[in-house]
Design a protein that fits this description.
7-stranded parallel β-sheet; alpha/beta; 8 helices
């Protein structure tokens, strides 16, 4: 293990993976632990959180796991309280939870729209609200929100609620960064672009003829000629959470192989 996160307590919401392989939250959680963090892995599927914690434990790290729904304020407050009881502090909050909902505008119901907003945006707010009091007492903390290039870049997917929720998450990130800058609480976001993670096979694949067509099309859209992966996002998160980024706050960092340079 390295030591960029030595003795720091990191709470990762969405620490599991949507399917076999490495999702953004799972990779970030394991990387934080490899760098010395004590990990609290949370996922709506407790089995997925336990899988991630098990990987960390097998590598000699320290991790605990919880099942938790980010849209349930009571659950999130309980997890934060139990983390503080166990470790006494929370140095990093990593908000990774998010879903897409593809469909034409006329097909979107109010309930579908609200579900995306609740999970992608309100959940991050509730988690931040629960964690900030501890960070204020510590006079230090880092919050990493996983957004998307869809917040700033219009693509071919009809996921209007997703784009709107991620745009909201970007601006929430900046507003919180300014509010808590004097308290030494840094708030940044990462905007993944075209990534090859289990999530796309569950939530995006239906937009293509088959998996091979999806992979080829997404690779071709990147200026680098290939998609990124969860480890690209994890390494960016590690930097922003670490003391190396001590003077960086309010940044929405694109990890996208140059995709957003192409314009809308």
């Amino acid at each position: 293990m390295a030591d960029r996160m030595r003795d720091k307590v990191v709470l990762v919401l969405g620490a599991g993976s949507a399917g076999p392989g490495w999702g953004n939250g799972k990779a970030a959680a394991v990387l934080y632990a490899r760098e010395g963090a004590r990990l609290v892995a949370v996922d709506v599927r407790e089995s997925a959180a336990r899988e991630t914690a098990g990987i960390v434990a097998a590598e000699g790290g320290e991790a605990i796991a919880f099942g938790g729904d980010v849209t349930d304020e009571i659950q999130i407050q309980r997890i934060v309280a139990e983390t503080l009881t166990r470790f006494g502090r929370i140095d990093v909050l990593h908000n990774n939870v998010g879903i897409t909902d593809i469909g034409e505008l006329e097909d979107i119901t109010k309930e579908r729209w609200q579900r995306v907003m609740d999970i992608n945006l309100t959940g991050a707010m509730l988690a931040t609200k629960a964690v900030v009091p501890a960070m204020l007492r510590q006079r230090a903390g880092a919050i990493i929100n996983i957004s998307s290039t869809a917040a700033i870049h219009i693509n071919d997917y009809r996921y209007f609620s997703y784009s709107a929720s991620k745009a909201g998450l970007n601006h929430l990130t900046r507003a919180l960064a300014v509010r808590y800058a004097k308290d030494n609480i840094r708030v940044n976001a990462i905007m993944p672009g075209l990534m090859n993670t289990p999530l796309i096979h569950q939530q995006i694949a239906g937009s293509y003829a088959d998996t091979a067509a999806m992979m080829a099309a997404r690779d071709a859209k990147s200026p680098m000629g290939r998609m990124g992966d969860a480890w690209d996002v994890a390494r960016a998160a590690l930097f922003l959470a670490s003391d190396e980024a001590a003077y960086i706050t309010g940044v929405c960092l694109a990890v996208d192989g140059g995709l957003t340079c192409l314009g809308g």
